[in-house]
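Incident log, support desk, overnight shift.

02:14 A customer reports that sequence design results differ from what the structure should imply. Their input is reproduced verbatim below. On-call engineer (initials T.W.) acknowledged and began investigating.
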C-alpha cells in the first residue's frame, strides 16, 4: 500500500510539473514560430518594398548620401515614362502572349498525360514518371546552343513560338506530376458509373474529371505562368529574341538605359519591376487557397 501511495504521489508531481511547464514551452514555441514567420515575410518583401521606394525617387536622390529610406518628394515620373513608352508596352504584350500560350499548352498536355498515368495500365509507367523527374534536374543553359540552332533552322528566331516550345517542354514535367497526383485522389467509382452510362474516356475527362480538378488546374496555371520558364524567363528570351519589338519584359528591363550611356535609370528599372510584379502578387494572393488545395490533395493521396 505504501508503495502504491508513493507511486501515485510521484505521478501527481509529474503531472503537476507537466502542466506547470507546458504552457511556458507552448508559449515559447508559438512566439518562436511567429518570429520566424515575420522574419521570412520581411526577408521576401524587403526587396520589393525597396523597389517601390526607389521607383518613387528621382535618380539624384537614389545616388545621394546618406541613404534615405523615405523619398523626400514622391515622383511618379518613372511610371509615366514607362507607360508612355510604346516599346515597353510591346514588351508587356509579348510576355503576356508567350506566358498565356505556354500555360494553355502545358495545361492541355499535362491534363491528358496526367489522366493517362493515373488511370490507364501502361507499360513502363513508373519508368516514364522517373524520366519526368529527371528532366527537371537539368539546367536550362546546357540546352541553349542546341535549341538556338534548332530554332534557327526552323526559322523561328524573333517569333513567339521560339520561346513557347522550350517553355512548354521545361514546364511540362512539374505540371504532369501535379495533375497525376490530383487525378489519383478522384474516386474511380465516378468514372465507372460514367462508363456504364455510355461515356467515352475523352468525355469522362472533359465533362467529369477536369471540372473536379479546378484546384489543380489553377495551381498548375499559376506555377507555370509565374515560374522560371514563362513570365520570368531571361536566358532564352535574350538569345532567341534579337529584335527590340520581339523581346519580353525581363530582357526589356535589363536593357533600359538613361539619357546617356553613363546613366543608369534605377528609378525606371524599379518602376518596371513593380509594374510587372505587383499584378502577379495580387493574383497569387487571390487564388492562394486553390493553390494550397491543389498541391495538398495530390500530396495526401
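02:41 Re-run completed on a clean worker. Output:
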Amino acid at each position: 500500500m505504501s508503495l502504491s501511495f508513493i507511486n501515485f504521489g510521484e505521478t501527481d508531481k509529474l503531472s503537476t510539473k507537466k502542466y506547470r511547464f507546458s504552457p511556458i514551452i507552448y508559449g515559447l514555441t508559438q512566439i518562436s514560430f511567429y518570429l520566424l514567420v515575420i522574419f521570412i515575410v520581411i526577408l521576401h518583401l524587403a526587396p520589393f518594398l525597396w523597389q517601390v521606394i526607389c521607383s518613387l525617387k528621382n535618380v539624384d536622390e537614389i545616388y545621394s548620401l546618406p541613404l534615405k529610406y523615405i523619398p523626400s518628394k514622391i515622383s511618379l515620373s518613372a511610371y509615366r515614362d514607362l507607360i508612355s513608352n510604346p516599346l515597353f508596352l510591346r514588351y508587356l504584350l509579348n510576355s503576356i502572349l508567350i506566358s498565356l500560350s505556354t500555360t494553355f499548352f502545358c495545361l492541355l498536355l499535362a491534363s491528358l498525360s496526367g489522366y493517362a498515368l493515373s488511370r490507364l495500365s501502361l507499360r513502363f509507367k513508373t519508368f516514364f514518371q522517373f524520366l519526368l523527374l529527371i528532366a527537371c534536374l537539368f539546367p536550362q543553359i546546357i540546352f541553349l546552343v542546341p535549341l538556338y540552332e534548332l530554332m534557327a533552322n526552323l526559322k523561328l528566331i524573333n517569333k513567339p513560338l521560339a520561346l513557347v516550345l522550350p517553355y512548354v517542354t521545361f514546364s511540362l514535367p512539374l505540371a504532369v506530376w501535379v495533375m497525376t497526383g490530383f487525378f489519383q485522389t478522384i474516386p474511380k467509382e465516378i468514372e465507372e458509373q460514367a462508363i456504364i452510362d455510355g461515356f467515352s474516356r475523352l468525355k469522362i475527362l472533359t465533362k467529369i474529371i477536369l471540372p473536379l480538378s479546378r484546384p489543380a488546374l489553377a495551381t498548375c496555371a499559376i506555377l507555370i505562368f509565374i515560374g522560371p520558364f514563362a513570365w520570368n524567363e531571361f536566358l532564352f528570351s535574350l538569345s532567341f529574341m534579337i529584335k527590340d519589338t520581339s523581346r519580353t519584359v525581363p530582357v526589356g528591363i535589363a536593357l533600359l538605359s538613361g539619357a546617356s550611356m553613363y546613366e543608369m535609370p534605377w528609378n525606371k528599372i524599379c518602376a518596371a519591376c513593380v509594374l510587372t510584379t505587383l499584378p502577379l502578387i495580387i493574383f497569387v494572393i487571390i487564388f492562394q487557397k486553390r493553390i494550397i488545395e491543389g498541391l495538398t490533395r495530390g500530396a495526401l493521396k
